[in-house]
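Handover notes (outgoing to incoming on-call)

Open items:
1. Methyltransferase FkbM domain-containing protein: sequence verified, structure written out, both below. Nothing else pending on this one.
2. Nothing else urgent.
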Amino acid sequence: MPIAVGKEKGKLKFNLKNEDNQTGWGGLSLNKDSNLIEVDVCTLDDYAAANNISKINVLKIDTEGADTWVLYGAKELLRNKKIDHIFFENNMERMRLLNIAPNDAKDFLEKLDYVVKQQSPDDFYAYPRR
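Methyltransferase FkbM domain-containing protein structure tokens:
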């Protein structure tokens, strides 16, 4: 059963691009495409609770622009410093289409007392301030 993690529980349409030169490139559907699947969405907080996950050592997020939403859905894990290392990216083109501002993830993490370091123009690393 396909499942995704995001900012809230629900369902989303996911576009499965079928292009030989684009392995792993898919994303939330913003229009009517012929290659769509509907997936259940849960928060990382809910997924961790349902699967008895009390600590995450490394969280790598690569959701083609929706990384901020994954972090929003992990608010309790983050508030309780249950995630040690977070790697995420800003896919600016997709973020614009999803109405996510460039600094939303960084600002969110910093408010929860995480240190955020920019590794490259689009790649970030965060860890709890101790």
